[in-house]
Q: What sequence folds into this?
């Protein structure tokens, strides 16, 4: 008879324990999506909220209210990625892709045609949050993004949000009404204060 009972003997040795490795937020969210199909503890775009607002990116749920053929600026995570080989026509043999772009509010289908896909395939497969400039289209009243051009309006059509730099204006024009301020503190002091502020913020 096999038994685990041991009377009067020493305790069984414990197996060695390995210290648990810390998992960063990005990896944790990726596991949630793979195992559960949804993000629970957050969303990969959460840390980019201020950047999304500064660049005036359109939430995906709002695309239904925009006219077809509008060039839109959106951001999200690629999911349900499918790489397709074109079988007919002058571009037979080339590859394109169809996938979903997801933000915290919704998702949209994206069609990336050969030139566009060839340029940005690596980004699409990187699991990085991306920015996209694309043409809005509708199929059975559902929005989708058509991507055929490598650049739109002089900008890259796809960029990593991690690497996206905040753009500062190249020129600022200020129009000041000085009469009231000069009346209170005098012209000499007013201009001295203006010069002091400008010297601290050169550019």
A:
């Amino acid at each position: 008879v096999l038994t685990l009972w041991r009377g009067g003997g020493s305790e069984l040795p414990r197996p060695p324990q390995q210290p648990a490795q810390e998992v960063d937020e990005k990896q944790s969210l990726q596991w949630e999506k793979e195992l559960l199909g949804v993000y629970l503890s957050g969303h990969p775009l959460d840390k980019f909220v201020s950047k999304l607002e500064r660049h005036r990116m359109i939430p995906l749920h709002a695309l239904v209210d925009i006219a077809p053929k509008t060039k839109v600026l959106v951001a999200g995570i690629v999911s349900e990625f499918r790489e397709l080989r074109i079988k007919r026509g002058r571009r037979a043999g080339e590859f394109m892709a169809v996938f979903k772009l997801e933000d915290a509010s919704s998702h949209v289908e994206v069609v990336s045609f050969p030139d566009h896909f060839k340029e940005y395939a690596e980004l699409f497969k990187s699991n990085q949050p991306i920015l996209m400039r694309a043409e809005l289209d509708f199929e059975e009243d559902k929005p989708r993004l058509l991507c055929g051009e490598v650049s739109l309006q002089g900008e890259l059509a796809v960029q990593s949000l991690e690497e996206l730099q905040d753009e500062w204006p190249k020129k600022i024009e200020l129009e000041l009404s000085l009469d009231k301020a000069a009346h209170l503190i005098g012209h000499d002091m007013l201009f001295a204060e203006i010069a002091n502020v400008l010297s601290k913020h050169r550019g």
